[in-house]
């Protein structure tokens, strides 16, 4: 995990508690300096999910198997795609966590 600027410093985001969040380094690398991405269904460019101001359950849900994150809204779908939240290694890790009883988290 690493500290991520929700609005990147390169786009004027401050280094304040309200603009910082923990992110896995690979997800943060995929995010880069973006704050928006296209919804793969509508093609509309929307802001990426803001974990400080938005509720995870409004924008995402777990697949039936519990190993993949599904976007419920344009923001959710754009974020899943932009951050590549269902990379093979993440899905495989989640499968192991399910077997261990650690996943998916209670909502």
Descriptive notes:
The structure is a single chain. The chain has 107 residues and is an alpha+beta fold. The chain has one domain. 32% of the residues lie in helices and 19% in strands. It contains four helices and six strands. The chain has a two-stranded antiparallel ribbon. A hairpin with a 6-residue loop joins strand 3 and strand 4. It starts with a strand and ends in a 7-residue tail after the last helix. The model has no long low-confidence stretch (mean pLDDT 95).
Shape label:
globular
Largest sheet, if any? 2 strands, antiparallel
Average pLDDT metric: 95
Q: What would you report as the Rg, rounded to the nearest angstrom?
A: 14 Å
Helix content percent band: 25-40%
Secondary structure: number of strands: 6
Query: Any idea how many domains?
Result: 1
Strand order of the largest sheet: 1-2
Low-confidence parts lasting 5 or more residues at pLDDT below 50?
none
Content of β-strand: 15-25%
Distance between the termini: 21 Å
Number of helices: 4
Q: From N to C, what is the helix and strand string? A: EEHEEHEEHH
Structural class: alpha+beta
Q: What's a concise summary of this model?
A:
The chain has 107 residues and is α+β, with helices and mostly antiparallel strands. It has helices at 25-31, 56-59, 74-83, 88-100; strands spanning 2-5, 20-23, 36-38, 45-47, 60-62, 69-71.
């Amino acid at each position: 995990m690493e500290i991520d600027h929700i609005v990147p410093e390169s786009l004027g985001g401050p280094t304040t508690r309200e603009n910082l969040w923990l992110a896995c380094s690979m997800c943060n690398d995929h995010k880069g300096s973006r704050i928006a991405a296209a919804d793969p269904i509508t093609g509309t460019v929307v802001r990426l999910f803001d974990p400080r101001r938005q509720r995870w359950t409004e924008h995402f849900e777990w697949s039936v198997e519990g190993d993949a994150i599904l976007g419920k809204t344009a923001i959710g779908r754009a974020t899943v795609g932009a951050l590549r939240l269902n990379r093979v290694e993440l899905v495989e890790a989640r499968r192991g966590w399910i077997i261990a009883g650690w996943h998916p988290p209670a909502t």
